[in-house]
Amino acid sequence: VVTIDPDRLLTDLRRLRRFGAVDQGVVRQSLTPIDLEARDWLRRRMADAGLDATIDGVGNVIGRSPTDGPALLIGSHADTQPTGGWLDGALGVIYGLEIARAFIQRTDGPPLAVDAVAWVDEEGTFGSCLGSRSYCGLTTSDELATAKNADGVTLTEAWRAAGLDGVAARPEPGRYRGYLEAHIEQGASLERDGNQIGVVTEIVGSRNIAIGFLGQQNHAGTTPMHLRRDAATALVELAHTINLEFRRLAGSATVWTIGRMTVAPGAASIIPGTAEMHLQFRDPDLGRLETLEAVTLQLIDDANADGVVDVTATPSIAPVNPTKLDEELASHLAAAAEQVAGSRWVAMPSAAVHDAMFLAEVMPAAMLFVPSIGGISHDFAENTRDEDIVLGCEALAAAAESILRGEPTAG
Amino acid sequence: VVTIDPDRLLTDLRRLRRFGAVDQGVVRQSLTPIDLEARDWLRRRMADAGLDATIDGVGNVIGRSPTDGPALLIGSHADTQPTGGWLDGALGVIYGLEIARAFIQRTDGPPLAVDAVAWVDEEGTFGSCLGSRSYCGLTTSDELATAKNADGVTLTEAWRAAGLDGVAARPEPGRYRGYLEAHIEQGASLERDGNQIGVVTEIVGSRNIAIGFLGQQNHAGTTPMHLRRDAATALVELAHTINLEFRRLAGSATVWTIGRMTVAPGAASIIPGTAEMHLQFRDPDLGRLETLEAVTLQLIDDANADGVVDVTATPSIAPVNPTKLDEELASHLAAAAEQVAGSRWVAMPSAAVHDAMFLAEVMPAAMLFVPSIGGISHDFAENTRDEDIVLGCEALAAAAESILRGEPTAG
Questions:
Q1: pTM metric for this prediction
Q2: Which residues in chain A touch residue B263, judged by CB atoms under 8 angstroms apart?
Q3: Which of A23, A369, B370, B400 has the lowest tally of Cβ within 10 angstroms?
Q4: Dihedrals φ, ψ of A373, to 5°?
Q5: What are phi and psi of B88, to 5 degrees?
Q6: pLDDT tens, position by position, B239-266
Q7: Assembly ipTM
Q8: Cβ–Cβ of A255/B227 closer than 8 Å?
């Protein structure tokens, strides 16, 4: 079987960290000068490995194996959050590089084709999963024309400054058996249960609803309770009822969050006239996601029916439906995990969005997780034990080989 | 009986509005140049009426009747909120001027002494009820040394700029039979029930508690519900429980308000790590106020007991206990109200703080309310019908006469 080089893997991972390193973390947002430097370094590392390496017109770095297909595309994203960890994205990118390199350099066994990829802008500096969606043909011209970063720089300007023409590479017809992506878990469940590998079965969907409350601002001393139209009380009571109902309807993987809550004018002696809260919920099951959405809208209708405060609901982020990952690819990942980690692996949903969601629309796609220490991510402190980093790459390489050889799995 | 002059009353009230007029409202915050101009005008109007008029060292305008005591002190405050109405304070000030003037100018009946007063800074630009508390000896040197307005100007600087030495006038020993203050209701109950006068029996007390929540900020997708320490959820559930318990314990005059609510960092996909809310409650009954306070602290203890989120309580504004107004003075006001308004008056508590609360500590004090159109106050739209303005002044003048004559009342 193919053998990856643990030292080379960890060395390249640490080299990639140097582009934008701050303490243990990394600041390397999409299409910034340091991100473009990192992409050029990745292109050169892929070329050094014997891949035909290019940066496409949107910023994706793609290293094509000289071997004929069927091929696997393996990678993740190279950009980070504004104050990011060193592994979120980078881990999967260097796994792709290392595995493609291992297949080219092996001298035993048949030639097998693994192409490596480093997507641009998964973190949404200009648009969430922009690179992978561009590759899959899932962006709209309207979105691209209006996209801006937090500083107001347009995507068009950023591409021009980077010498990019905005035209993405597209999947080479007939070449791909599928897409594999490794990622840190960004949660604490692998660590908590003593597992070293997670085989991702699906990526959860989400709904985001901004809920507005319009009451009547008034004097907090002289307005009796029965005459109040208090926007803050309406918010509290609706949030409480949502918590009750969601607890009743939730599955084991359902999560919901009221991450934003504001009342105005926000003074001790004034009854708030307006309020707003943001409700987000995620679930791997589309049916449950739709039930939770319907229940939320019904509770808002009920709150409106009493007529005291006007309550409105606005979808604040486009709905994302759950993505079922490819079962056959996942069964290869499971067999490989069993092979390298014994019983210390588990099948699990991904609670976060990943590039694999969009790849799954154009080819079979699967994902593998490694543990996040303390469940921390999107933070300079994000980390994974070296042993787990190496083990995850070994599992992904073994799965790639069994997929490309067309070996049957127990699953 | 003494007769007030309705035209003169309304004319002076409208003249006072011109100092700081914006549309129908007034912007005349304490110790600003326009407030000082208004005070100087008031001093001159009092002098024109035959009163011995002075501005004391804190900014109170006091017009002393040349008649010997026993005297009544009648007035209210001349300052406004940052965007204030034209009657809040001003009404009671011009009533004091008009009634003192009417008693000096009358030719029938015995000479009776009414002194007029216009307190400074009831609205708390530098400190709530600063002028009346200074007059009553209820300020602390520490408070005066540190007081600032919203622009960071210290009270000491403001006094110096106004040519004031910071030393308040004090009640002339043995002179006063009591203090009378008229004010707009700042609520809608008189208007709603078709009453023209309210005789205030007591001023409610209040408690203000800032409640802080410390949980753990985390990823809203990858953190399962049972591992969350969500500060926003803790806030919602405590606020809901407070609403339930307070509804059970409330009397007809109890009010409570959560006027401020913040969660941090306030992003859709991040579980809030910290949150804060401000709870205020008011009640005319000290026992109930203390029960509500004890229940709030118990609910906070209960919320802490589950250990998920740390909850802390901090009194954010000094506690104010309810003030019982003088029953004998109130019975004169009631008799006068009956005389001018027939059955269209009612005995009622005041839900807002007034200068009379502090005067009540040094002499018998009573208050009279006139209706607020639509219950609106602290707003440019604040208003009262001319007919009600005149009627209120007639009632207050009649009560002043019967008090000073020492007439018995039915009550």
A1: 0.80
A2: 258-261
A3: A23
A4: -60, 125
A5: -65, 105
A6: 999 999 999 999 999 999 999 999 998 8
A7: 0.80
A8: no
